[in-house]
Structures are given as structure tokens and as C-alpha cells.
Amino acid sequence: MSKKQFKTESRKLLDLMINSIYTNREIFLRELISNASDALDKRHFLSLTDSAYTSSNPLTIQLAVDRDNRTLTIEDNGIGMNGEEMEKNLGTIAHSGSEEFRQQLENSREVDIIGQFGVGFYSAFMVADSITVESRKVNDEAFRWHSDGQSGYTIEPGDKASVGTRITLKLREDTDEVKYSEYLDKYTIEQLVKKYSDYIRYPIQMMVEQSVPKEGSEGEYETIETLKTLNTMVPLWRRNKKDIKDEDYNSFYKSQFYDYEDPLEVIHYTLEGNVSYKALLYIPSRIPYNYYSRDYEAGLQLYSKGVFIMDRCKELLPDYFHFVKGLVDSDDVSLNISREMLQKDSQLQELGKSVTKRVKSALVNMLVKDREKYEKFYKNFGYSLKYGCYQDYGLHKEDLQDLLLFYSSKDDKYVTLKEYRERMKEDQKEIYYATGSSLAQIRKLPQIEKLLDRDYEVLFMTDDIDEFVIMMMREYDGKNFQNAQQADTEVESDEEKSAREELVKNNESLLKDMGEALKDKVKEVRISSRLKSHPVCLVADTNGISLDMEKYLSKMPDGSANMKATKILEVNPDHDIFKVLQKVHEKDPGKVNEYADLLYQQALLIEGFSIEDPVEFSNRICQLMKEASENN
Ligand code: ADP
Predict the structure, then answer these.
(1) Which segments of the chain have a pLDDT < 70?
(2) Does the beta carbon of 281 sit less than 6 angstroms from any atom of ligand 1?
(3) How far, in Å, is the centroid of ligand 1 from the Cα of 122?
(4) What dihedral angle (degrees, nearest 10) is formed by the CA atoms of 391, 395, 397, 399?
(5) Quick check: is 455 in a domain?
(6) What's the CA gap between 391 and 368, in Å, rounded?
(7) What is the pLDDT of residue 21?
(8) What is the pTM of this model?
(9) Residue 171 and residue 164: Cα distance in Å, rounded?
């Protein structure tokens, strides 16, 4: 028998457990019971399709204490483990969040975080000197794993006769601070089961002494040993809402759905009717660490009449609600429905529709009643909702548009489209938006100056996905979205328009020459109606992609890098630079080419584009400075 060492990461964790900086030691029992319950689930699930897994005895979890030997035993007749699995499951920490967990543990000593990271088994070392795991799988040999947590572990052939797993903890000797023997006290064990594991679907049983009337003799009692089921087995979601405390919801969430923070929102309801079911759904208060990656496994747990059917049933919620965790317990879904059948099952589709509707109404409700909470939610999962608007060719946009929030020019605060729409100015024809890399950058965009001056609200969009969403939505409540950085934004009154036309006429040759000088770069140079204090800006032609879309596409690895916006350079006729241009042009029409180019490059910079030849650009600025000083 050879001794193996724990993997480094496991080692570090074990040290933490053994040195027990974590004071809430009692949760070890919950962790082991929860593992046993999972093992029973697995066996039950396999038995649905393979009778070899059917157990002749009911599936249970048995607890036993032996005061003399200071042992506590947790035994299940679940799936079991073979030697290889013991090596894999108990010798290493498989869960990729383990490092994150360790940091959490070091930072927050009291928060209940063990077990959310797939390290539950190790928590037993908080109370035990050594642990023995004996296990057997169906049609397999028995194996025995043993470890003192410190010097490594051994795996050898075992002699367990029945299928399942028996875990024996040799409890530590009592110290002045900690009475480990309390876990040898049956009453304590019973209380712990009630506290943490009451809803477990399988009976958790223990032999207890009970005092019963002695047969044949009046008034006398005797103590007998009976097997007692310690848990009520009523799952949390099947209990009456008014009997459930926030604490119960939260601790269930954390232990079932691998989070160490309380959920942001709990949605618990029962529906009777066309489809009858109970649902217990949670919206996390933080983004699961792999949420926006491919590894994220979405989906709700599916139960039928309280019996677990499957984990991560994706069919119950659309992609855009995949942040929701929880379970659905239906009276109608067949017990042995397979994954392949899910998509076709009409009951399940009905169920999915109903669950989706409920999640939506919970969000609408939160938005109305608790804006702060909703914004917290939106910061984490707003991207999902936006993606939902865009996905499937905008199929869900009507459903989701009122859940969207955007920053706006009004106080840099989140607004809904409805709020924007309601306070639109009477003469305002469109919903204005501007895109950029940050709110500060957008706020300074030359193109929105006049709009803000007129007190028109402008939506500020900083997510790459925003423009795609807007393109898909096109309008909201009868008003079109208008990109403020696009050619056809109308901000002028009739008088202003005729004044501008007059200016265009008087400066025809200047504009033409500038346009000629930039003919490879812009479609046109024109007099602007949207600028106030800036000399020039770029706008994108209406027929084509926007300026930000060009930037976005240039980052794509495929051929879309060549897609360019058709640009128009607008000059501000009220700016001093315009007068300079007029003067230079009058004196030497050729000289204006150079100025046009410099202004164009500046406009590019303001937009966040890079310029073709920065060295040349800087040289020309220096040249201008020199000329200016010579003229003074
Ligand atoms: P987690 O349960 O979060 O995956 P644990 O460290 O508690 O992490 O357990 C590690 C693994 O060991 C489990 O995923 C499971 O595969 C296996 N295991 C633990 N307890 C049992 C058991 N009673 N029966 C079968 N397998 C078990």
C-alpha cells in the first residue's frame, strides 16, 4: 500500500481546514450529507434506465456515533466510488474556483462559504483527525481511502459488502477552546440535521434511544433503540411561503447553487392551471465567475413531484435569462424524460414559457419598486438582456425593451426608454444616442453639443453591443433612434436652415476645394448645424455603418476589418477657425488643402480613430507654430 500526496492546491486548503481558522465547524455535517444525497440522486437517476442500479433497500443516509471510539459515521447506499474515483475526487480539488475560494476564506472568516467551491468533503478535517471512506459501486470491487489530512492518503482494496459509501470520521480530542465530542452527542447531531439538511429528499436516519411504556407493566417505562428519521424531507420549495425565513432561502441557494453571497432576489411561487408547478428561482447578486464565457452551464434543476429529474435543464429559460438559478418542480413532467426529448416536449415548452413570464414580471416589479436593486442587477446582467434584444433577429425585443437601461446626458444616470420617451421635448422628433468608449468621452463629443444646448436628452452608449441592439430595435414607441454622429441628425429650425443654406452658397468654392483636398478620405466637406464650440467634427453618412461600428469591426479577426464608415467632415461656421479658412482660401486657395487635412486629422483623433501618419501630423503642427510666431 503506497501513500500518495495531496495536490498542492488541495494541500493549501487542507492546511486551512486543519488549522481551522473557520469557526463555523458544524457545517461539515451538512457537506457530507449533501454529498451523500447527490450520490443517491445519481444512483436513482441511473436506475430509471438500468435496473442494475435499483436498490432493494430504500435509498437513505445513515448516521451513527460511537462514543468509545470517538467516531461519527455517515453512510449512504448511493452511487459509490471506485479507487480511481477516490483518487480523482478526494485527492484533488476539481473545482476551478478553488483558488478564489481560498482567498475568500482567508478574507472572510465567518461567512458561510465552504461547500460552494467543491471542497465540502475536506471540511470534515475541521473536526476529524483522520477520515476513512469505504465505498463500492454496482458491479465493482470495494475500495478504502484513508487519510489524516497531513501526510497524504492511501487507497486500497476494501471489504464493504453493500453498494454505497461509508465515511468514518475519527473526531479530534477536545481542547480548551473546542469540544469536538459534541459531535458524538446524538441530540446535537439531530439538531444539526434539522438546521441544515431538513429538506434533503432522502431519509437521514440514526438509531436513537427512546423511552416507551413497558409492555405488561402499568406506569413503567423502558428505553429501547429505534431507527429515527431526523429530517422532514419536505423540500424548501414545497413548504408554505410564510413558514420560510429569508435565511432558509439564502442558505439553500448558497449550498445548492455554488455562491457565497446571498442572492439578490428570490422568486418562489406555485402555479395551478394549464401547467401546474412550483418554482424557486434566484437572481444572483454577483456575476458567476464564468458567466460570460462558454464554460458557464446554464439551466434550472427539474423535479417532478419533488423528485429530482435533472440538473441544468436549459429549455426552461431563454438564453437572455440564463443568469437565473433555481429549480422547477412540476406535477406534469414525466419522471424519465430524457434530454433528447426535452426540446420536443410540449408540456415542458409550456412550463418554460410560464417560468420566463414570471422572471420577466419579477424584473419589471423590481425596476418599479426598487430601482437601486434593479440597477445593481442590471450592472451584472444587463448585457444579457441587450443580447436578448439582438438575438434571433430581434424576436424578443418587444419583451425586453422596457427592461433596458442606458446612461444619458441627464445627470449621467441610468434611464429607461420609457422615461426618455416621456420627457422628450415636444419638438423633438427622434431619440438621440451617441456612442463611445466612456461616458466622459461621449459627453465631450462635438456632435452632441447643439443637441445638449437645446436640452434634448442624449443616450450614452458605451457597450459594443449597444449599437447592434439599437439597429435591431430601430424605434421605440413610435420614435426612431437617431445616432447623433450620423449625417442626417436634424437639429435646426427653419430659420437656421435657411441661414445655413445662405452660408453654403457664399462659401461654395471654399467647401469645394476642401472637399477636393480630402476626396480620398471623406465624401464631402459641409457646413455643420450641430457644432457650437468645436471647429470641426466627423459624421457618418446615413447609408453605411457608423463611426463606432467601423472601430468595432476593425477589431474583428475576420474580413470585416475592411468595412469603413463613409465619413463627412463638418465645419463650424461660427468658429474662428472658419474665418481663418476663409482668409487663407481667399489669399491662396492651394494653402487651404493643408489646413483641411489637419482639421480632418484632428476630427479623427477626437473620434478615437488613429491617424495614418502621426509623425507627419506633429511636424505640421510644429511648422504652424513656427509660422504663427514669425507672423507675430
Ligand atoms: P463537491 O461535492 O462540491 O463536488 P466534495 O469535495 O464535497 O466536492 O466532493 C468531491 C467529490 O467526491 C464529489 O463531487 C463526489 O464525486 C465524490 N463524493 C463525495 N462524497 C461522496 C459520496 N458519499 N458518494 C459518492 N461520491 C462522493
Answers:
(1) 1, 19-23, 92-119, 334-343, 559-561, 632
(2) no
(3) 10
(4) -120
(5) yes
(6) 26
(7) 52
(8) 0.71
(9) 22
